[in-house]
Each structure stands twice: as structure tokens, then as C-alpha cells.
Write a structure and sequence with these properties.
It contains 20 helices and 20 strands. By secondary structure, it is an alpha+beta fold. Strands 2-1-5-3-4 form a five-stranded mixed sheet. The protein has a five-stranded antiparallel sheet with strand order 10-11-16-12-13. A four-stranded mixed sheet has the order 6-7-9-8, covered by helices on one side. Strand 6 and strand 7 (205-208) form a beta hairpin. The structure holds flavin-adenine dinucleotide and FE2/S2 (inorganic) cluster (FES) (2 copies).
Length: 496
């Protein structure tokens, strides 16, 4: 059925839960953010605005959604979350935590542990911890560091904050949200009508198709519309570039677009709207370096919202998934109308800001082949900070072995060119090298300087990038040869 035919049945209102009731909005700007709605429309000023670009966590809110019949609580940066993305969810803010005049256990522990000085970051920190509290898992020190990686506190220091959290996040949640989970789950289930959503008119709209067919038809009709996965990039176009987005198609309600499966040749297939947080364990099962990479991808808030498809479709030269999956032999699957095509990731990125994607075509899935028995893999992200930082250089390599001989290699880098790119000359130079003869790797190190002419920018100089890439290749080969033990910063964090 076409979108036109379906849209007669489309819902013309956004619906979500807030403060114990249903909200239905028939008029709102497609570019409105949750933070602006809260602070400007609802007068709910407890949620703060710091950076307005997803980096500081001052604006953290929690969305509760039904997952396999249970409520899942996840933290989001309200400053870059579009209002329309609330459809079907329950929005929980800091003001909701007090019950009958009593502070939430997390708020009380924050007071008792003196974990707040100026207090600007505190609502966001408590909301991030609230999501962790409802995970039902006792939080470890390392887990709390991860939970708070997207929350910046400039004056208290994290020791008392972690102390408050360790005391509270230690078992099954016992607050009014836990006590009312059945009623709230029923209310969320009642919102899940699986209908297309179309709010606005042809000139300006927020649409959330419910099926692949509806999405394909709507995007064919409005190929200039802005597709939104998690809005962790698009949100910044609004808050930093002040772009006036008029036609927005949010992909988060498209059934099965977040599906996880296996392609015909056994590759892991990740649906385009699969959240990065959900992709992390699946990629980590291919190789432990992908676990650390995903742990360092933004923050909990960014990974809860950001999608696998968005990270590839944005064509960023410093996106992390593209080089990591390119080295594995990954593919992107595209759909336009009812036609799909798959292409190797390296062919998708044509030039800076230019991808092999036709008008009306969207990313359907991203495929990551598993490693064969005689294949070895390493992936490294180098950035100024461990947490919440964009790569200065990212290098991933897969080598195919015959005993100690390297038959072939796939090397891909981020941050080294205008697109994520394979190092073809280095790959050729590595073919025939031997793991026991480090001198035979030298040609590949040298060849990297013919593969790439990196830029100097605020993250790193060209010379630094070149040296780091060559060193990372050598580190990978040293580890694979067995001559050097793996060292990762995440190992230190986990051991603390
Ligand atoms: C604080 C912060 C930290 C970050 N850290 C990292 C990091 O460590 N590593 C990293 O790689 N990135 C990082 N990012 C960038 C961003 O989070 C990722 O690129 C993310 O994967 C984008 O996904 P999204 O769904 O939010 O994309 P969106 O913002 O929704 O979309 C991004 C682009 O892709 C298009 N698009 C989205 N989905 C599709 C689709 N299915 N088909 C076609 N086009 C589509 C959109 O139209 C847009 O052009 C960070 C961002 C922030 C704000
Ligand atoms: S205001 Fe800083 S993350 Fe939203
Ligand atoms: S208490 Fe002041 S920024 Fe955290």
C-alpha cells in the first residue's frame, strides 16, 4: 500500500506520556527539541541547558519504553532529541522523581554524600543514574563510570557522586516507578498503535512512518526531507547551525528497521535504526576491540539515541563504525522504493559529504561478516579523552593468515582522509609479509604515507595522525604475532 493510501489512516498527532497522563500534540515545529518544549512550553526548568550539543549531559532526561513487555529506562540528551522522537514513550524528568514530598533515593544519597556543589549538573547526573538504577543490576565502579561518561561535573568532583550512586544502585529498584510499572506499561502499550504518524502539511511536517513500505513511499515523494535516526548529528544542525528543517522523517517507528539477523553469507546484519547501545554487544561478540570501541562511542545518552545507520549514512570521515566494519569486509544495504542493493562500505563513501545514495534511497541495514578461523582483527580509536570524544585517528585491520604468513590484509582508517578509507597500498605491501619478521611489515608502514594525506585540525596535526596510524598498524601486527600483549585503556577501567 502506498503512503498516500495509508496516510488517510495516518495519525495526525504526536502521542506520549508525561507527568502521569497522555499528551497529544497536533501542532509543533518539526525541528523542536525536547529541551525547548520542556523549558519553554512546560516551564519545566529542572532540566538544564549547558552545551546544547549532546556533550555535557546537563539536559539528561529518561525515556521509558516497552521492550519485550517490560519497561526499559534509557537516558537521552534532551537538547538534541527532537520532540517528535517522544512518540510512544514516557518522558521522565528530574521533577518527576520526588514522590509525596520525599526525595528519590538517588536524590537523598546525593544530598547525604555532598555530591552537588553549584548543582548545575546535578539534575542530569541524577537522571543518568536513575536510568542505571532501573537497570536492576548492581552497578560496579566501571559501570558507573560508563553510566556517567556523558555527564560533566565541573565543581563537585566525581568521588562523592560515585559514592552516592554506589550506595543506591545496588539491586532491584524500589521507588514509585517500580511500584507503578504495571499500570505504566499498560499505558505505554495503549499508545503503540503501529500507525503512520504525519503531523503538519506538505510544506512542513514531522512524519514517523510505521512500515518500510510507508517510509519508502513517503521518502520517494519527499526526497528532500531530512531522515532522522537518533538525531545525534541532526540535532546539532538545529542547535548549532540553526538550520530550519521543514520536512522531517523520523525512522524510529518503522517496524523491523532495527532488526538483527544474518545475511545469506553469514554476516551479522544490523538494521539501520538499531541503537548503538544495542549494537555494542553484537559487535563485541565479533571481536573484543569492537566492545571497547563501542564503550568509547559517545556516551550512554548518545548510544541510546544514535543509530548504526546514522553513523554510516552521515558519511563522516571521523565516524567510528565505518573503518571498523570496512576492515572486516562490511557492507551497507540500501533501499529505494521496493528495490534493495548492497555495496561494500568502501564504495559507499565517494568524497567528503558525498555518498553513493540516490534521492529517495535510505540505509536499510549494515552488515558485518564474522572472522574466519585464520583471520585476525584489531581496531583502535585514538582521541584526546577516553570518554565521549571523537577519534583523531581510528585504525582497524584484518589479516588473513596461512600459518605465520600474511596472505592478505584489509586496513581501514578514520580521521586520515575526507572519508573513511581503506589503505590499499599498505594492504598490498603487507601481502606476503611474515608475522615472525617485523622487518617485513616496514613496507606497509611506509605505504600508509602514500595512502593518506591527513589534515591538521583542532584534534591533531597531520604529522601526528600519520605517525599514530603507522604505530597502530605496527601495534596490531605485534599483538597478532604474539610478540606483544594487548593493552587497552578499557582494561584499566574495568580493573578499577
Ligand atoms: C556528544 C556526541 C558524541 C559523539 N561521539 C561519537 C563517537 O564517539 N563516534 C562516532 O562515530 N560518532 C559520534 N558522534 C556522532 C553521532 O552520534 C553518530 O554518528 C551516530 O551514529 C549518528 O546516528 P544518528 O542515528 O543519531 O544520526 P542522525 O543524526 O539521525 O542522522 C545523521 C545523518 O544520517 C542520515 N540518516 C540517518 N539514518 C539514515 C538512514 N537509515 N538512511 C539514510 N540516511 C540516514 C540523516 O539524514 C543525517 O544526514 C557523537 C555525537 C555526539 C553529539
Ligand atoms: S545541554 Fe549539554 S548535553 Fe544537552
Ligand atoms: S555541581 Fe557544579 S557542575 Fe557539578
Amino acid at each position: 500500500m502506498s503512503f498516500e493510501a495509508r496516510s488517510t489512516a495516518a495519525r495526525d498527532a504526536l502521542r506520549f506520556r508525561f507527568r502521569g497522563g497522555d499528551v497529544a500534540l497536533r501542532q509543533f515545529s518539526p525541528r523542536a527539541t525536547v529541551l525547548d518544549w520542556l523549558r519553554e512550553e512546560m516551564g519545566a526548568k529542572g532540566t538544564k541547558e549547558g552545551c546544547a550539543e549532546g556533550d555535557c549531559g546537563a539536559c539528561t532526561v529518561v525515556l521509558a519504553r516497552l521492550r519485550d513487555g517490560r519497561i526499559a529506562y534509557e537516558p537521552f540528551n534532551a537538547c538534541i532529541l527532537l520532540l517528535g522522537q517522544l512518540d510512544g514513550a514516557e518522558l521522565i524528568t528530574i521533577e518527576d522523581l520526588v514522590a509525596n514530598g520525599e526525595l528519590h533515593p538517588l536524590q537523598q544519597a546525593t544530598v547525604d554524600a555532598h555530591a552537588s556543589q553549584c548543582g548545575f549538573c546535578t539534575p542530569g547526573i541524577v537522571m543518568s543514574l536513575f536510568a542505571g538504577y532501573h537497570s536492576g543490576q548492581p552497578m560496579t565502579y566501571a559501570g558507573l563510570c560508563d553510566q556517567l561518561a556523558g555527564n560533566l561535573c565541573r565543581c563537585t568532583g566525581y568521588r562523592p557522586i560515585i559514592a552516592a550512586a554506589m550506595e543506591t544502585c545496588n539491586g532491584a529498584p524500589a521507588d514509585r516507578f517500580a511500584a507503578t510499572s504495571q499500570e505504566r506499561a499498560a499505558a505505554l502499550a495503549a499508545l503503540a498503535d503501529h500507525r503512520d504518524v504525519f503531523v503538519g502539511g506538505e510544506a512542513a511536517f514531522f512524519a514517523a512512518p510505521a512500515s518500510l513500505e510507508s517510509l519508502a513511499a513517503l521518502y520517494a515523494r519527499f526526497p528532500d526531507a531530512t531522515l532522522v535516526g537518533g538525531a545525534t548529528d541532526v540535532g546539532l544542525w538545529i542547535t548549532k547551525q540553526l538550520r530550519d528543517l521543514k520536512r522531517v522523517i523520523w525512522l524510529g517507528r518503522v517496524a523491523a528497521l532495527d532488526a538483527v539477523g544474518e545475511s545469506g553469507d553469514g554476516a551479522l546484519s544490523l538494521g539501520a535504526t538499531l541503537a548503538l547501545e544495542d549494537a555494542a554487544p553484537l559487535l563485541g561478540a565479533i571481536h573484543s576491540d569492537l566492545s571497547e570501541l563501542m564503550r568509547r562511542f559517545g556516551s550512554k545518552q548518545v548510544r541510546a539515541s544514535g543509530t548504526v545507520g546514522g553513523n554510516i549514512a552521515n558519511g563522516s570521515p571521523i565516524g567510528d563504525l565505518a573503518p571498523a566494519l570496512m576492515a572486516l569486509g562490511g557492507r551497507v544495504v540500501l533501499r529505494k522504493g521496493d528495490k534493495t542493493r548492497a555495496l561494500p562500505l568502501e564504495d559507499f563513501f565517494i568524497a567528503y559529504g558525498k555518498q553513493d545514495r540516490e534521492p529517495g534511497e535510505f540505509v536499510l541495514a549494515v552488515e558485518a561478516p564474522p572472522l574466519a578461523v585464520l583471520q585476525r582483527y584489531r581496531a583502535f580509536k585514538v582521541s584526546k579523552r577516553f570518554d565521549e570524544d571523537i577519534s583523531a585517528v581510528m585504525l582497524a585491520v584484518r589479516v588473513d593468515l596461512d600459518g605465520r604468513c600474511i596472505l592478505g590484509a584489509r586496513i581501514a582508517c578514520g580521521g586520515m582522509a575526507a572519508t573513511p578509507k581503506r589503505a590499499e597500498q599498505a594492504e598490498q605491501a603487507l601481502a606476503g609479509a611474515n608475522l615472525d619478521q617485523p622487518a617485513s611489515w616496514e613496507a606497509a608502514r611506509d605505504a600508509l604515507s602514500r595512502d593518506f594525506t591527513p589534515l591538521t585540525d583542532m584534534r591533531a596535526t597531520a604529522a601526528y595522525r600519520m605517525t599514530v596510524a603507522a604505530n597502530l598498524l605496527e601495534k596490531a601486527l605485534t599483538e597478532i604475532s604474539g610478540a606483544g600483549a594487548p593493552t587497552r585503556i578499557g582494561m584499566l577501567h574495568a580493573a578499577e
